[in-house]
């Protein structure tokens, strides 16, 4: 509790900002069918809208990470929230596909500005021992936003199809003003500005090309694989269980929500204890193995309750994996928190772009192929994770106790 209230409740404000961004992403889900009819857009256009968000987030994330190191976390968060508000308002007034694309691309830019700054700010105000708890709080806010976004969107849409987006825009402006006037600047700002290495600007592709030299490169690969695997799983999950078991949309919603809520509860409560007890390396390796195993088990389940158990376990593993990786990299980053958080966000976006595309192609060939491929990739990444600990320990002994 002391961490949540420290620095004028900085952690709570960070959670509010990141929660609103990911709730805004979820708002679209229950409303898109109506938009498809009203604007006469196809399912492929909807898929491109999802990709547009992730693509712009991917392009801008490393740049935004550098900017947060150079100009301060607070400025990036406030700017990102204002752009978020504009993107939601634009989506609300959209009467043509071009405006929808503009709105989603602005949304991707806002996420790119906010996520690295929030992750870096969290690292700035936590000790190495508290780092896992802090990252768990942030990831819980992300997960919760994803969970309740569709529900809130569907409820508010009763007052008008576009009302959810106007409401999100107002909430974004409120959060930006609250952050501007209440959130103190990160205590690392002056130290970062004094380091000329931090203000050196590099292009996105230069940063990605050079990332293989960093001690956390394999962690970035794991970030990509985890995002790829989860996006792969979720993209075809509804189609898979509908085709194979005849599940209704209500059944599918319950399964996904149940697993996601469990992950958020763990992140908020015992995640910090788990990482401090067993260490990031061990937690990451176990989660990768469990995720790969339960993706594979999905192919062999034939009862509703088994699907619930398998999906619950898989989502729990992924929800523990993501903040564990963020914690490991933030401990290695030292005073490059924004830069590393930007790379983290970029690799996440790459996974979110590639996962649905690959899943769709494989699903058209055979409905089982996406999960076979995801399981293989996760198992290979599990083997890679076993070597991460050695490099981490050599680079920074404080990461693994």
From TrEMBL:
Residues 10-391 form the Major facilitator superfamily (MFS) profile domain. It is a multi-pass membrane protein. The chain crosses the membrane at residues 12-32, 44-64, 76-94, 100-123, 135-157, 163-183, 216-240, 252-275, 282-300, 306-325, 346-363, 369-388. Pfam families: MFS_1 (PF07690). Its main location: membrane. CDD domains: MFS_MdtG_SLC18_like. The keyword Cell inner membrane does not apply. GO terms for cellular component: plasma membrane. It is found in: Cell membrane. SUPFAM superfamilies: MFS general substrate transporter. One of its GO terms (molecular function) is transmembrane transporter activity. Keywords: Membrane, Transmembrane, Transmembrane helix, Transport. Belongs to the major facilitator superfamily. TCR/Tet family. This is Multidrug transporter. It comes from Priestia veravalensis.
């Amino acid at each position: 509790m002391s961490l949540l209230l420290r620095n004028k409740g900085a952690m709570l404000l960070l959670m509010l900002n990141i929660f609103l961004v990911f709730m805004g992403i979820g708002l679209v889900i229950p409303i898109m069918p109506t938009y498809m009819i009203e604007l006469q857009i196809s399912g492929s256009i909807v898929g491109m809208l999802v990709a547009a968000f992730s693509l712009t987030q991917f392009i801008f994330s490393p740049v935004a990470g550098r900017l947060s190191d150079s100009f301060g976390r607070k400025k990036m968060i406030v700017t990102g929230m204002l752009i978020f508000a504009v993107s939601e308002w634009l989506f609300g007034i959209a009467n043509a596909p071009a405006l929808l694309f503009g709105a989603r691309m602005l949304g991707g830019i806002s996420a790119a500005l906010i996520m690295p700054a929030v992750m870096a700010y969290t690292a700035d105000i936590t000790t190495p021992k508290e780092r896992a708890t802090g990252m768990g709080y942030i990831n819980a806010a992300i997960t919760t936003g994803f969970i309740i976004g569709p529900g809130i969107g569907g409820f508010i849409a009763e007052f008008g199809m576009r009302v959810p987006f106007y409401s999100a825009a107002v909430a974004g402006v409120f959060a930006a003003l609250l952050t501007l006037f209440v959130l103190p600047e990160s205590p690392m700002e002056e130290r970062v500005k004094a380091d000329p290495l931090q203000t050196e600007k590099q292009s996105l592709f230069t940063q990605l090309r050079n990332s293989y030299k960093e001690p956390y490169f394999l962690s970035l690969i794991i970030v990509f694989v985890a995002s790829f695997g989860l996006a792969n799983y979720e993209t075809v999950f509804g189609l898979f269980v509908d085709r194979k078991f005849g599940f209704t949309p209500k059944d599918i919603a319950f399964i996904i929500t149940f697993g996601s809520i469990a992950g958020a509860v763990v992140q908020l409560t015992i995640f910090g204890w788990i990482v401090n007890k067993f260490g990031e390396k061990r937690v990451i390796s176990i989660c990768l193995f469990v995720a790969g195993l339960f993706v594979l088990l999905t192919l062999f389940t034939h009862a509703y309750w088994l699907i619930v158990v398998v999906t619950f376990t898989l989502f729990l593993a992924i929800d523990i994996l993501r903040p564990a990786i963020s914690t490991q990299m933030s401990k290695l980053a030292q005073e490059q928190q924004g830069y590393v958080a930007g790379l983290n966000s970029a690799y996440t976006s790459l996974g979110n772009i590639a996962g649905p595309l690959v899943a769709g192609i494989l699903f058209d060939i055979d409905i089982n192929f996406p999960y076979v491929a995801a399981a293989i990739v996760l198992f290979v990444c599990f083997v890679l994770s076993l070597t991460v600990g050695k490099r981490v320990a050599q680079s920074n002994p404080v990461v693994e106790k």
